[in-house]
Amino acid sequence: MGNIYDYYAATDDGQALALFEDGGMDDPFGTLGLKGADPFLLLGTVEAELTGVPEAQVEADPRFCRMLNDPSHEGPWLISLTDTLRDALAAATPERVLETATAWTRTEDGGGQDPGLLADFLERLGGLARDAGRRRRLYCGMSL
Q: DSSP E strands: which ranges in the chain?
């Protein structure tokens, strides 16, 4: 059994934590769940590919996979995603999303993965990003 990742939008970190700690991802802005879509392994490369910014610079963003709840407990955990990723996904065309997914499958972490499945996930995450607009931020809740 693998980890579960729920991606969702919230107005700010406080609202995101409240939604997360209330047991659920019954968030009013929509939730996108996917087993195995680890943001630490996936989203740095995706954001770098979409924006043309080096991955090291993406990962230096203070919101890149920043733990928002106590990392010392055994989960679940909540992390923030960058606003740059939100905006890039919201603006990406389906063709650009597929190019990005294909590029990720050529990395060490993505080797052997189906780019079509990843592109589908990124399209759905892009839909969440478009719905979030610039008034809400994206988050990922992770559980075992």
A: 4-10, 31-35, 66-67, 77-80, 137-143
